[in-house]
Amino acid sequence: MIQGQEIRLFDPRRKPADWTDVMGPTQCAVLLHDRKSSVPLSPGGQPFAKREDVTCLLFDRLEAAQKFCEAKVLELPNICCEIMNARAAHIRR
How do residues 5-26 score in pLDDT, each as one tens digit? Predict the structure, then answer.
């Protein structure tokens, strides 16, 4: 399965700290959450222990993010994937 780079949404040690400021203009991010409860999930489908541990996956190309999401939903049907571009526009899977 195609993997993106996993980063925390907010990391006070990172410069810049916010995930949206880390993305390049052609990159997109995949955020995973439970389809029914909207609880953020790890790439393995597990809830995060703490809110500050929530991550997203960065992809250099939209096509790679879409393929990842399609495979992930087949693997774990309870997952919903959101793809966001650098302007934070949502593309839902």
Answer: 999 999 999 998 888 888 888 8
Asked if residue 31 lies in contact with residue 82, where contact means CB atoms within 8 angstroms, the answer is yes
* pTM, entire model: 0.87
Please tell me whether residue 7 adopts helix, strand or coil conformation: strand
* DSSP H stretches of helix in the chain: 62-75
SS3 88: coil
Tokens of 63: 């096509």
CA distance 25 to 34: 28
Return the domain boundaries, the chain.
5-92
28 and 59 Cβ atoms separated by less than 8 Å: yes
